[in-house]
Amino acid sequence: MMQQEHRESVCNILAIETSCDETSVAIVQNGKTVLSNLVSSQIETHKAFGGVVPEVASRKHVETISLIIEQAMEEAGMELDNISAIAVTEGPGLVGALLVGIMAAKSLAFALDKPLIGTHHIAGHIYANNLTADMQYPALALVVSGGHTELVLLEREGQFRLIGSTRDDAVGEAYDKVARALGFPYPGGPYVDNLAMEANDAVELPRVWLEPGSYDFSLSGLKSAVLNVVNQKKMRGEEPMTAEIARGFQEAVVEVLVEKAIRAVKAYNVRQLLLCGGVAVNKGLRRELTARCQREQIELLIPPFEYCTDNAAMIGAAAYLKWKNNEFSDLRIKGDPSLSLEQWSVGQPVSES
Q1: For residue 218, what are the contacts with CB-CB under 8 A and spacing of at least 6?
Q2: What is the rounded end-to-end Cα distance, in angstroms, of the chain?
Q3: What does the alpha-carbon distance between residue 289 and residue 261 come to, in Å, rounded to a whole number?
Q4: Angle at Cα 100 formed by Cα 99 and Cα 103, nearest 5°?
Q5: Is the pLDDT reported for residue 3 higher than 80?
Q6: Beta bridge partners of 36
């Protein structure tokens, strides 16, 4: 990562996000003001396959990236000369999808002679909260998405410490697998959430707490418990009680997420709890976490729906941390599916690519 001085009082970051199945470009000013944020979703394309097909996702990114960049610039009413830096998701994500965005970002940075900022996808989800509120430190982030379920401690701005993570399935993965077992199409999470909110009763399912004091999560056992209930009903020729199963599953997931997050808030004496990631749109989780934080008098930040799912505005918000610290990437960066959030923290020693 290169370090170089900048003197601009206004920073306009052109941010690119292509980590999975959304092609997104945004213009973000000073890490807070979203001038444009365009997202092209591939959900309809992947629905036929029951999940994201990496090669198809990459091809779709190639088809749309140039057009989305042009539209984002037009919507922001900005010329390329006014761009201060180019930010792009460096990882984690699907390597082929990441490379499409990275090549576009490197080409722009080289052609415009602008700084390049490789950005961590989860840092983006966390700092999506900063787009509509003022984050205060120390803070704790509960990250819930298709590929990640984590508790991240931020002792100060741009400093990330992982204190808990999933040992198997992420929340989003578990929701999609349960939805498939209940007969719903991809992506199944919203179907399970909606059905759970409508159900009057719940099938009792296990809560997985792991070792005393652990902030880690495990969802594979809960997923298996749901499959056992479904299969037993089918073997007896009974209706699967879909709504009750959905509610039981959601309650089991939400209870563990909320309890561990609240316990960590108290243990680390943080000022704010941040909910972030694609599963942050889940109504059951938002409702229960909000109610619990109100009872415990904990300040909770949740981004608006449009900043929860993958988008480039969140990448621009996180990249601004690097801009302020004069930490820029060079043109040798490449997609890194296992990029470490802790090592991406602002102020880390400059590493050789």
Answers
A1: 166, 167, 168, 208, 210
A2: 7
A3: 9
A4: 80
A5: no
A6: 27
Give the list of residues 6+ apart from residue 180 with CB closer than 8 angstroms, or none: 50, 186, 188
Residue-wise pLDDT tens digits, 81-128: 999 999 999 999 999 999 999 999 999 999 999 999 999 999 999 999
Distances (CA, A) of 2 to 11, 19, 84, 333, 335: 18, 23, 16, 11, 17
Number of neighbouring beta carbons within 10 Å of residue 134: 9
49: number of Cβ within 10 Å: 10
pTM for this structure? 0.93
Q: In this prediction, what percent of the chain has a pLDDT beyond 70?
A: 96
Q: Which two tokens stand for residue 197?
A: 């909110």
CA–CA dist 251, 170 (Å, integer): 16
Confirm if 292 and 262 have CB atoms less than 8 A apart.
yes
